[in-house]
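Escalated from tier 1: iron/sulfur cluster holo job.
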Amino acid sequence: MILDRKQAEEAIRILERRYPNASYYLDFDTPIHLLVLAILSAQTRDEVVNSLSKRLFNRYKSAKGFADADEEELISLIKKVSFAKKKARSIISACSIISEKYGGTVPKTIDELTSLPGIGKKTANTILINAFGIVEGIPVDTWVIKLSSRIGLSGSRDPEIIEKDLESNVERKYWHNIAYVMKEHGKTICKSGVPICSKCPINNICPKNGVSKRG
Ligand code: SF4
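Tier 2 regenerated the structure:
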């Protein structure tokens, strides 16, 4: 069952109130650092990514710094993340383009960002929102995929369709934070295994209230 617009907005409003401190979870100082961490974060825990930032950004401070990095040295600095070699190549390539084509400044549009190696729509939305305060869309990560289905905000598992469903059913003022609110809810109550529906603030709206297994 899919919630109607009124129910969807009510669910998001309640979750926003429940998790007032939900926010982006990677530690960054500059847009280029955010871009690098966002590439590293794919299929890697936030704690692991954040643990690398100090050493990494002491060594490479700018897009040019990353563009000129020795690939083997960069791989050794990020070896704790999954697919370190592939990610190192994406970082060097993306930063070379940023350095040469954009004068070292991270571009500010979805199309420009998604044309860079290692940057998909989710990451592009994440960079625009958190580095520049530009809200063009909703970052759809694994928590958003999982919870949108559970809560009845979308009937799809396709990130692009989920983003469209959410954007048409949730007020724009919630877009910038919805992924982080859902992550908090998924970590604390609507867990991947068995959710704690009895303690859920939206159990009177959610069509999966009482679900006893993954789903
Ligand atoms: S009622 Fe249960 S399944 Fe629905 S959002 Fe709450 S915890 Fe998740």
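The domain at 31-132 is CATH 1.10.340.30 (Endonuclease III; domain 1).
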